[in-house]
Amino acid sequence: MLDSLLALGGLVLLRDSVEWEGRSLLKALVKKSALCGEQVHILGCEVSEEEFREGFDSDINNRLVYHDFFRDPLNWSKTGEALPGGPLGALRAMCNRTDLGPVTIALDSLSWLLLHLPCTTLCQTLHTVSHQDSCPPGDGSPVGKVHVLGLLHEELHGPGPMGALSSLAQTEVTLGGIMGQASARILCRRPRQRPTDQTQWFSILPDFSLDLQEGPSIESQPHSDPHIPPVDPTAHLTFNLHLSKKEREARDNLTLPFQFSSEKQEALLRPRPSQATSHIFYEPDAYDDLDQEDPDDDLDI
Amino acid sequence: MAAVATCGGDAGSAGSAVATGSKSNVTSFQRRGPRASGTNDSGPRLVSITGTRPSVRNGQLLVSTGLPALDQLLGGGLAVGTVLLIEEDKYNIYSSLLFKYFLAEGIVNGHTLLVASANEDPANILQELPAPLLDDNCKKEFDEDVYNHKTPESNIKMKIAWRYQLLPKMEIGPVSSSRFGHYYDASKRIPQELIEASKWHGFFLPEKISSTLKVEPCSLTHGYIKLLQFIQNIIYEEGFDGSNPQKKQKNILRIGIQNLGSPLWGDDICCTENGDSSHSLTKFLYVLRGLLRTSLSVCIITMPTHLIQNKAVIAHITNLSDIVVGLESFIGSERETNPLYKDYHGLIHIRQIPRLNNLVCDESDVKDLGFKLKRKLFTIEWVQDNYLRQERNIYPPGFSYLLKQKDSAWGEGSLQHSTFLMSFLAKATAFASRLVRHSEPLKQTGSGRICQAAGPRLWHDGRRQEAPGLLGIPP
């Protein structure tokens, strides 16, 4: 599953933490895209270029297009090398790219961008960059997929920006692990379908290639099932919900008081002899006027 | 919002999906006296706008939301000039489906559409609308869907008190294309010619805003201002507010705004608690409601409220909208394993219903409503109905006949049934549990109050008795 991460396109969030760092996974994915022949752009903001390129072979290093914003993020040295507009300008420039073909853009790191740029601007720019392939240019030629890999340190941000970026992302990879074995929980949101959630154990080899593994044998079983038995709502009630067979038959044979059967109809229509002797019991209220005279007697008719 | 007298729109073109507004002559109000024939402006004509009907309670003009079950929960439909706010579920699957049902209903009725979105091109949204189910082919599809769902013992013929046979039956089947609410097939796309025959306007935010953002300090986010201006232009130019004296037929404008409040609109209400533009969304809703109240339009907004950090803002937004419906899907939550919810995909919460020209609103008593998206249909039901379908013996014998009969107004799934069930169950359990705890029945005061709140009870001498909960601890 981890190796087909880049098949979907769009924004891929790599959420790491202090215990389980994600830069090596980012570099492994970058190496994979470079080997597939895609164009790779790196926005380096958090570590220096030498540190990022360390560990890659020379042919991969030649394929990477590195935009360095670590050494001089605000362009104070004014050498003219840095791109105008900072990292945001670089991202926007990638929005209007002229050459077609699959592209991978690695953001190292998205946390740095979140801390230095307003969240809404960043979200809008990321959305435009990652959705370029859905708007084909006028000549109708197919545009290659754009993959945006963002490294996000989840401990640095509050629930607001994290939630906003999660809702934008097509895939979210949360790094974790147990006892030295790293795992990636991959949440894949397809546009109109249910999201899929999988966990993949892996390790990164020294040359930054991915090694997919089976999980450690101890906890391959899911924990939840033995502990929580399925809830039976009818178990501990104070009234009885079940009917025995005899009770069920008795219920079926019951005649309802309001059931309008033919016997009842005849009984109603037949003149009843008992009606002449019906009594009316009346207890007067406190406010009742017990005047026996008929008030209509005064009328002169 | 005028209460418009309606005449039964008897569409002669049964096959055509777009119901034309034909003035039919079947009405009981005939004009007496000499009728000036030949002149068009002689006295009040009975006009009806297609796809609308007056509410049976107060004559308010209503349109359908596209889901007849939701219409019933909202008191008959959506009033013209109001805002329906849908609080999105976490992965925005079902709320976008409700959004599309609303737009598809507009196309089928011939209303003008205005679709606004910041993340998807409106043309793509319209391509993905569900196909309407019309008279001939819908009935068998609906039946096969419903049939798969019925349990095998539903063929027991239930007896019922004869008075209830005369009550009107609830519409659970598909209706003809000229009626108020339509059914849609969620697995098929709407035919292309229907989209082309309809009139729609799209607002796609990245196109309307220039990429060089000079952020002006303004109380409303730039995107919202643009959207409001767009809506106002459309309303004015096409005469939905009566400004251009319309020679042609009056029509309804259906506005759909997707994912309002998300960061893609430029609003940081989902990112921070106290941002710069924290009031911009509420101001937008206020101005939008003003625009809607003075025109023949109706609006649906989907909003990712689960992302909004400041809970007070959600309360403001709820107050500023007319109808608020919240969707909660079970994907990824622990409720997925709860046996009560096992047939449902999520819960639907009706959080607010407006009181338009009324002192009270038509709030339904049933609170636990669940929805499920079957292969073709989206249905809304009371959650306990599912549980009780399996456990039919919960009633005393007499009541079960009163309430459960096939093909009656009190059948399962109807709201009358559910409301009665709910109150009956609440009373029964409270009664029984009190009997168990105190060995004495509750005094039947007859005032309808059933719950004795388990709070601290102070006797006159100041000693406090322990609160008796439902699980009484034995002394």
From TrEMBL, chain A:
This is Elongator complex protein 5. Belongs to the ELP5 family. InterPro entries: Elp5. Coiled coil: none annotated. Residues 285-301 have a biased composition (Acidic residues). It is found in: Cytoplasm; Nucleus. It comes from Sapajus apella. Its main location: cytoplasm.
UniProtKB/TrEMBL annotation, chain B:
GO terms for biological process: tRNA wobble uridine modification. Pathway: tRNA modification; 5-methoxycarbonylmethyl-2-thiouridine-tRNA biosynthesis. One of its GO terms (cellular component) is cytoplasm. Residues 13-24 have a biased composition (Low complexity). Transmembrane segments: none annotated. It holds the Pfam family PAXNEB. InterPro entries: Elongator_complex_protein_4 (IPR008728), P-loop_NTPase (IPR027417). Keywords: Cytoplasm, Nucleus, tRNA processing. It is found in: Cytoplasm; Nucleus. Belongs to the ELP4 family. Component of the elongator complex which consists of ELP1, ELP2, ELP3, ELP4, ELP5 and ELP6. Component of the elongator complex which is required for multiple tRNA modifications, including mcm5U (5-methoxycarbonylmethyl uridine), mcm5s2U (5-methoxycarbonylmethyl-2-thiouridine), and ncm5U (5-carbamoylmethyl uridine). The elongator complex catalyzes the formation of carboxymethyluridine in the wobble base at position 34 in tRNAs. This is Elongator complex protein 4. It comes from Sapajus apella.
